[in-house]
């Protein structure tokens, strides 16, 4: 967090934006230090996306092994986490889940190839 630059208004929570509570430190009160520079904001967004992907993968990948329909699983996951069950949200989450699944399957194939080469 940095001091708010002169002439810049602090962002406030509005539709389509996520409110983030600023931590309070003795030497950096949030009333003064309430600005995230663009790079810091980008890093925060990446951290949120990564944690979202990890939670999505951890909660759904086991069910894919037992043959449940992916569409039903994603809608159930959205309901559990209070995400509005729209087609747009479902598509975004399904794409993120598919990317995680592709990475997982690619790693598994690479492991098998490595073990085959090592055993020969």
Count of β-strands? 0
Poorly predicted regions: none
Name the shape in a single word: flat
Tell me the β content: under 5%
- SS class: mainly alpha
Which sequence of SSEs, written as H and E, runs from N to C? HHH
Largest beta sheet, briefly? none
Helix content: 55-70%
How many helices does DSSP assign?
3
The average pLDDT value, as a whole number, equals 86
Terminal CA distance reads 55 Å
The rounded Rg comes to: 21 Å
Overview features:
single chain; 120 residues; mainly alpha; 59% helix; 0% strand; flat
Short description:
The protein is an all-alpha fold.
Secondary-structure blueprint:
Layout: H1 38-64, H2 70-80, H3 87-119
Helix pairs in contact: 1-2, 1-3
Give a written overview of the molecule.
- The chain is 59% helix and 0% strand.
- It is mainly α.
- Helix 1 packs across helix 2 (70-80) and helix 1 (38-64) crosses helix 3 (87-119).
- The termini are far apart.
């Amino acid at each position: 967090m940095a001091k708010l630059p002169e002439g810049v208004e602090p962002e406030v929570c509005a539709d389509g934006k996520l409110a983030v509570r600023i931590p309070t430190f003795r030497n950096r009160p949030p009333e003064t230090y309430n600005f995230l520079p663009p790079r810091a904001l980008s890093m925060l967004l990446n951290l949120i996306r990564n944690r979202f992907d990890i939670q999505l993968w951890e909660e759904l990948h086991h069910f894919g092994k037992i043959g449940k329909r992916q569409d039903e699983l994603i809608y159930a996951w959205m309901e559990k986490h209070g995400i509005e069950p729209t087609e747009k949200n479902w598509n975004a989450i399904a794409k993120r889940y598919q990317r995680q699944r592709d990475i997982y399957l690619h790693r598994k194939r690479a492991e098998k190839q490595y073990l085959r080469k090592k055993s020969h």
